[in-house]
DNA sequence: GCTTGAAATTTTAAGCTTGAAGCAATTCTT
DNA sequence: AAGAATTGCTTCAAGCTTAAAATTTCAAGC
């Protein structure tokens, strides 16, 4: 007896089911992280993302680069940086030789604040993904890495 | 020689890496779907989600139930349903015996419109998850299912 | 019947998000 | 060097999202 025929329809449904499950898990984790950030640091995920991107680049990033790294619209970054700057966590610095662009970087206060948040963030994720051992994590990561969606330009 | 010691730190980092990758893939797929919905149907993901929830329940759902199923705030659902109702795709129906609640259901036009969109949506997901065979899909699904985040109440 | 409390929904304020339009500065072309 | 296209950023309109406050209605308890 041969193996059962793979119905052409099944694969599509299976992928749809996987997508819905990924979406649900991701949203759940995001919601948990958002609430934690709000309650413990009176902050938000977008703010965290911006600060995370800036931490690595001590000389700062252009708005341009920031929006490309985070994969969000440039108009979006403007607002988030505005609010972070109001709070004294980041600062806009003029770029010599190009008066159109500005460089954004963490202030010392922003750097300190983010360091604390990042540590908490990692431990929250660690708790939320409880039950995933290193092997699973690595395995899922590999599978996800195969998706076209994970291969886009940085 | 014994197996390498599992550093306590490694697992946490590995989970963090997995989370960041899941987040990136999910956002990428969401962005693609959002754009498709906008260009081809002049619609949005939240509208799609609401209509999807309503399709199964031909008698409709209370705002209450809708917001619980979609896991979004009730105030949020109000706005989305408002706009769908403006477009004649859903309708609010009074519930006899309780003047506080309303039942929302797809209009025939909404039902037709969603059927077309749902078909396109499935094929988009199928393309976006190209490279994931049925076995992979099933496997990742199982792993995700183990997460505490996927075990919450429906 | 009246009051108190709970339930269903809407409203509100603040922030996030996008795509498109608008501005200013730079670079390219001729 | 003048005009044209490009680049970098902000502004804008519309919609999504949440948490919290406000409204209206229902359900008990007294």
TrEMBL record, chains A, B:
The keyword DNA-binding applies. The keyword Cell wall biogenesis/degradation does not apply. InterPro entries: HTH_MarR-typ, Tscrpt_reg_MarR-type_CS, WH-like_DNA-bd_sf, WH_DNA-bd_sf. It comes from the Bacteria. Residues 15-149 form the HTH marR-type domain. Keywords: DNA-binding, Transcription, Transcription regulation. Gene3D superfamilies: Winged helix-like DNA-binding domain superfamily/Winged helix DNA-binding domain. It holds the Pfam family MarR. PANTHER family: TRANSCRIPTIONAL REGULATOR, MARR, TRANSCRIPTIONAL REPRESSOR OF EMRAB OPERON. This is MarR family transcriptional regulator. It comes from Billgrantia antri.
């Amino acid at each position: 007896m041969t193996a059962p025929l793979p119905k052409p329809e099944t694969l599509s449904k299976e992928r749809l089911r996987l997508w819905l499950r990924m979406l649900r898990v991701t949203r759940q984790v995001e919601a948990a992280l958002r609430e934690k950030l709000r309650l413990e640091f009176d902050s938000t995920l977008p703010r965290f993302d911006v600060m995370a991107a800036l931490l690595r680049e001590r000389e700062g990033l252009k708005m341009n680069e920031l929006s490309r790294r985070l994969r969000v619209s440039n108009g979006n970054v403007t607002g988030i940086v505005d609010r972070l700057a109001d709070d004294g966590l980041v600062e806009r610095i003029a770029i010599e030789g190009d008066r159109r662009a500005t460089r954004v970087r963490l202030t010392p206060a922003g750097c300190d604040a983010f360091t604390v948040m990042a540590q908490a963030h990692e431990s929250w994720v660690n708790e939320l993904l409880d039950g995933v051992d290193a092997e699973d994590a690595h395995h899922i990561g590999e599978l996800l890495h195969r998706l076209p969606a994970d291969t886009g330009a940085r």
